Amino acid sequence: MNVRPSSGNGQGAAVVVIGGGVTGLSAAWWLARGGVDVLVIDKGIVGWEASGRNGGGAAHSFSPLFAEEQRLWPLMDEMLGYPTEYRPKRIRVALTEAQLDYYCRVADLATSQGFRWEKLDRKQLKELAALVTDEAVGGVLLHFGGQANPQRTVQAFAWALQDLGGRIQQHTTVTEMRRKGGKVTEIVTDRGTFGCDHVVIAAGPQTGLLAQMIGIDLPLAFARLEQIVTEPVPLMKMGWVDGNGLYGRQTLRGNLAFGGGPHDWIEIDGMRAPFASSTFVMRHLAKRVAQLFPYAAQARVIRSWAGLVEVTPDGRPVIDRLSDPDNVVLATMASVGFGLCPATGHAIQQLVVDGKCTFADLSGFNLERLRNVAPGWREKRGWLPPVSAA
Ligand SMILES: Cc1cc2nc3c(=O)[nH]c(=O)nc-3n(C[C@H](O)[C@H](O)[C@H](O)COP(=O)(O)OP(=O)(O)OC[C@H]3O[C@@H](n4cnc5c(N)ncnc54)[C@H](O)[C@@H]3O)c2cc1C
Fold first, then answer.
1. In terms of domains, do 302 and 173 share one?
2. Residues 160-190: pLDDT tens digits?
3. pLDDT digit string (tens) for 102-136?
4. Nearest residue CA, atom 31 of ligand 1?
5. Nearest by Cα to 250 from 264, 237, 267
6. Do 302 and 233 fall into the same domain?
7. 140 and 239 co-located in one domain
8. Mean pLDDT of 280-295
9. Residue 324 burial by CB count (10 A; 0-12/13-18/19+): exposed, middle or buried?
10. What pTM, to 2 d.p., does this model score?
11. Which residues contact 370 (CB under 8 A, 6 or more apart)?
């Protein structure tokens, strides 16, 4: 592939990545490592959307990218040259025998992929996670999965990309993509036009709108998820300890950072996503955190926020190099994009440079599978905002 800008007002790059979340930044970093001239364009600042607001979990053991994700995370601080605060393993706390059975069954499924886990009795659980309630009947220790700090990770990718000569253009909204001869050749923004040889669209909830600009239909639904953070409490031996309907982690400083609950479905119909602030859901999260960690129940909630995610009709990501236009890779991560990001970026780099991913079978992530999704699929699933009582 070419590694020099090919067109457009003197600005541009061999690869223009639309979206400075973890997916776009990781893809750009992998490309820059291979010597490719790459430019990331974001309508806001890097990581301002879901990538900087998520739970930090790396736990999607059923993804074809999980093995690569697990290989890469322990290497990322060294490869990037900046800290991500990655820590391996995960504990799931069971408050009932039925929950414990369920967690064991789910953990067992991962053994077919070579991952290890063990059942913990109450005493073993408390040794690893001293703040957990005495009401817990036990738990599972997963020797796979893990967690990292989302904001540190975004920053690490951005700095590492720039160290390699990659460029990031913030506060720049893509409004149009121009095609010539079966390829996208120009990216039009509110701050000028950028020539390109290849494009990666990794724009989170807006990926569908950007795909529409080149005549591609990508059905997506949108949801708001919320998180709370407490003031620091004494450190547990294990950082990722969850249960009671929550997912989350204890930060290195001791804060409990947790999210959970069902998806709060919303509408997004423009480039400007609705402002994602927290709601009364934070009170439910705080209650559940206090039930799971009664020894931290007096800790004050010091921050809360919401973030937006996109979901495909079958709940799986799309990571695909299109056939027409044939120089575009589409990546939408269906709510599981943080943990997978080291591997996703690697896969996208291979799709751009070689047209195929060599380390994972991505056939289940192609766009073709969504071609015949019937109109009204969101209504059928009930993935719609609640009807206002007014
Ligand atoms: C509260 C919460 C908790 C979560 N917990 C986890 C978890 O524990 N583990 C996990 O793996 N995942 C989790 N997720 C999901 C995860 O955060 C996302 O899947 C992931 O961050 C998606 O990254 P992305 O780069 O693909 O998209 P985003 O982070 O959404 O980034 C897309 C970027 O594209 C830019 N953009 C959009 N349109 C345009 C345009 N027209 N022009 C220029 N730029 C544009 C946006 O400004 C944005 O910066 C959570 C999400 C939330 C909200």
1. no
2. 999 999 999 999 999 999 999 999 999 999 9
3. 999 999 998 888 899 999 999 999 999 999 999 99
4. 21
5. 237
6. yes
7. yes
8. 92
9. exposed
10. 0.96
11. 218, 219, 312, 313, 314, 318
Question: Mean pLDDT throughout 20-35?
Answer: 98
Residue nearest to atom 19 of ligand 1 (CA): 337
pLDDT band at 10 (very low <50, low <70, confident <90, very high): low
Tell me the HSE value of 93 on the side-chain side, using a 13 A CA sphere: 33
- Give distance in angstroms: CA of 23 to centre of ligand 1: 8
Which residues fall within 8 angstroms of residue 86, CB to CB, at 6 or more apart? 58, 73, 74, 76, 77, 146, 147, 148
Ligand 1 midpoint to CA 335 (Å) = 8
* Alpha-carbon gap, residue 67 to 98, rounded angstroms: 29
Same domain, 206 and 265: no
Report CA(355)–ligand 1 centroid distance (Å). Answer: 24
Residue 336 Cα to ligand 1 midpoint, Å, equals 9
Q: What is the pLDDT of residues 54-77, one digit of tens each?
A: 999 998 888 999 999 999 999 999
Ligand 1 binding residues, C-beta < 6 A: 18-24, 41-44, 48-51, 53-57, 173-174, 202-204, 206, 210, 225, 227, 247, 259, 271, 307, 309, 333, 335-339
Is residue 268 assigned to a domain? yes
Three-point CA angle 163, 87, 27, nearest 5°? 35
What range does the domain containing 368 cover? 12-55+151-219+314-381
Are 16 and 46 found together in one domain? Answer: yes
* Domains: count for the chain: 2
Pair (238, 96) in one structural domain: yes
